[in-house]
Amino acid sequence: MKNIVLFGPPGAGKGTQAAKLVEKYGFNHISTGQVIRNEIEAKTAAGKQVEDCIARGEFAPDDLVIEIVKHFMATHQDVEGSIFDGFPRNTYQAEKFDELMEEWKSEVDVMLSLEVPEEELVERLLLRGKQSGRADDASEDVIRNRIRIYNEQTSVVADYYAAQGKHVAIDGVGTVEEIFERLSKAIDQLG
Fold this sequence. Notes:
- The protein has nine helices and five strands; from the N terminus they run βαβαααβαβαααβα.
- The chain is an alpha/beta fold.
- The protein has one domain (2-188): P-loop containing nucleotide triphosphate hydrolases (Rossmann fold, 3-Layer(aba) Sandwich), CATH 3.40.50.300.
- Strands 2-3-1-4-5 form a five-stranded parallel beta sheet.
- Helix 4 packs parallel to helix 5.
- The mean pLDDT is 89.
């Protein structure tokens, strides 16, 4: 079973690429952002807890996200592998994730980090906001705040996995197919 952290700033294309990787490899896909949005739409206690954070462009509380991932892992054991999209977002979550993986007698095999310049991210997210109606993609100020938070708090997770020899930078600029080919090549090299 392969466990892949698909990493990158908001708008890097993680969701698009994860869907293609799931189709090609038969992996499970957990998008913490989508799971949280589903919780908000269902008006669950967890959804209500994070709704205000999301609207401001902030991340959901660490322990809540960890519980969501733990539940996912507990219910998805018999698979070829899993792609974790949007998780872990900080070193605390990465450390807790490693502990969870140990409980399941597994580990993160690789972090594939999509690298995209900030101005392209902003353009992509504004376009997505127009197409999807997502409130967190409608305002350039909120988008830039999300990218700022990513740069300050989340990008350090790449260092965490680099220290374990598990970080692979992927050029996230180009067509969806070009980026997908780069990701697939990195996964195929895992053996």
